[in-house]
Structure formats: C-alpha cells, structure tokens
Amino acid sequence: MDVRFLDSLLSVVAEGSIIAAARAQGLTPAAVSQRIQALERELGVTLLDRRANRAEPTRIALDLLEDMRRIVLLSRQLKARAAPGEAVGKLRLGAISTMLTGLVPPLLKALGSRAPGITLEIEPGSSAQLFDALLEGRLDAALIVAPPGAAPERVELVPLRSEPLMLLVPPGAEDMPPDACFRRFPLIAYDPASWGGQIAARYLADHGLAPKVLCTLDGLEAISALVRSGAGASLVPHWPGLEEAQPLPGGGLYARRIVAALPRAPERPACQHALVDALTGVAG
C-alpha cells in the first residue's frame, strides 16, 4: 500500500473535493482520482461518495480514517528520523517549571519561524530528574539548573541564563536587610535537595544565617505566593517573571545557572542545531 495514496485520500476528506485536494497537494485531479481508485481496488471497498462538485468519505472510510492518519504520521516521522541532516521531526524537551513559563513560550515561537518542521514534546520535571532522563536517552534536550558537579563528557551544557539570588519578603518589609528579615520572618526554604536550592542553602551557611524554617518547597512559584501572603521570607533565583524581589548583598556570587543539556553526539544534528540556535536567541 502506497502511503502517498492514503495521504491523498485524507486530503480529499479534509478539503471536501478531489479538485481542492489536488490543488493542496500540487497534483492534477486525475492523479488524485487514480490514487483513490487504486486504494479502493486494493482494499476492495468504496472509499468516496463522489458527487458533482463534492467527494465525501463513505461509512467504511470514516471507520478507517484514524488508522490511515496514524500510518501517514508514522511514515513522516520515519522519514524525519532517517534524515538527520534536515531540521524536521520530534524533539523531546525537558524543562523545569520556571523555564516552562519563562523560556518555552518564546522558544516555540522562534522554532516555528526558524525550523517549522520540528515538533516539541515537552516534559516537566526537576533538574535532577530531567538530567537523568537525558542520560538514559529519554530526552533529546533539557532546560535545567547546571549540575552541581562535572557533567559526563557525552553531555554538552549550553549556558542560557544566570539568575542571581534574591531576597523575597512579605509586603511592607522591603527595606529590611536579610539578617533582620530572617529574625522577624520564618524561612520558606527553596528545597536544599534540589540543585537550585543548594545554592540558597550555601548563601545562608556562608553568611551565618539560621532562620526558623516554616516549610520546604521546590516550586518557586509556590514559594513566591506564600511570601506574598505574609507567611515568611525566602531566598530565590531571579527567574523570568519574578516580581517584587529585593537585591541580595553578594547575590550575584550565588547565581543559579540555567543551561540546555544536550548529547554531544545527537541522532539528528540539524534538529539540535536549530534548537540551540533558537534557545540562544530567546534567552539572551
């Protein structure tokens, strides 16, 4: 069975007529009609109800459409994977929560204009989870906090952002220095088990600050909401979209580095190159 014939049938169904489908596919109406007839002979059923200026799928064709679409899609994906020199196909991209809201939206727009043949399948998670998924081959790239240690040689880390540590305080406490702030308010801790949270914990230790801990969270958006409610104060990186945070003395020395983690030997170099090009364009 020729997949191109299935594609022509799907085009007729979508366009409503053989003439319109031929125009959309850059073929003659006779060529499209011959493809449909060949399919009908092979399957032994009538697939189109042909009228004067219309062509509608028969009942059996409607029953088969989902499978036909799946076959055509798989065929396109197979061709994309077999053509590593072309920037087409699906990329599995992992992203931490602040990058999902801060970097992924402009990335999608940039890729749409630079490499429209690429489709992103996005997976959220923590930096450690996504890095492990990349090492195991379950992701093609990951937008994460830079690993605390040296990355394996088979992984490339492309710098995207440097986010200095900031002081997040409840409304009305904006002029308080960190030591006075944490004497008055409990700490809503950025989880020290996370890679970004380790940086905040190191700042507290280096500056002799040992506030009472109200709770520990890995979600920066949730931390920000709790601080706004007056529940406590926190130390957080200056992620895209963060508002009303106070500069922290020496905070630039405790910056959270955001990187794109990528395999050094990708299956589809052209796709990876297009992704990196788009990322560096929107992250700058």
Number of helices: 11
Q: Which stretches of 5+ consecutive residues score pLDDT under 50?
A: none
Give the total of domains: 3
Q: What characterizes the major β-sheet?
A: 5 strands, mixed
How far is the N terminus from the C terminus?
A: 49 Å
Write the CATH architecture name of the largest domain: 3-Layer(aba) Sandwich
Report the order of strands and helices: HHHEEHEHHEHEEEHEHEHEEEH
CATH secondary-structure class of the largest domain: Alpha Beta
> How much beta, percentage-wise?
15-25%
Identify the strand order in the major beta sheet: 4-3-5-12-6
Domain HTH lysR-type: 1-58
Keywords: DNA-binding, Transcription, Transcription regulation
Pfam family, one: HTH_1
GO molecular function: DNA-binding transcription factor activity; transcription cis-regulatory region binding
